[in-house]
Amino acid sequence: MIMKNTLFYKGLIFSGLIFAAFAWSTEPESRRSLGEETLAKITGEEGKRVVESLRDISPELGDWIIDFSYGDVFSRSGVSLCTRELATISALTALGNAQPQLKVHIEGALNVGCKPDEIVEIINQMAVYAGFPSALNGIGAAREVFDKRGVKPRL
Description:
With 155 residues, the protein is mainly alpha-helical. Helix content is 66%, strand content 12%.
């Protein structure tokens, strides 16, 4: 059933706190399409593989990734995809426990036009706010992605 002009509510739990997020979409199908399109722009086939890998155990988690993360948030027009990816890299670096996701988003940053130098600078800055171990792990993830793609920061 398609619900036109419906306000969708999603509650997110992060570190024990509840954050409410509202997303306006005229049709749920357009939200899904926009999410799939944005996911593909950023992650290429890798994002699709991640979502598909969830289908047998938690299909709703894959749906949330597409609909909310990419359909409602990443697809917003307020800042560029490069800026969104740099913000995501900083958050994942600061978390310090999300290496697979960090690598996907470093790849995504390169896919949407971020420069390797920008990625390294953002990760380096996290040493100030998240500590040297998190920044070192982030630089290690960046090195793996850069080596895989054959890119290097200019230093």
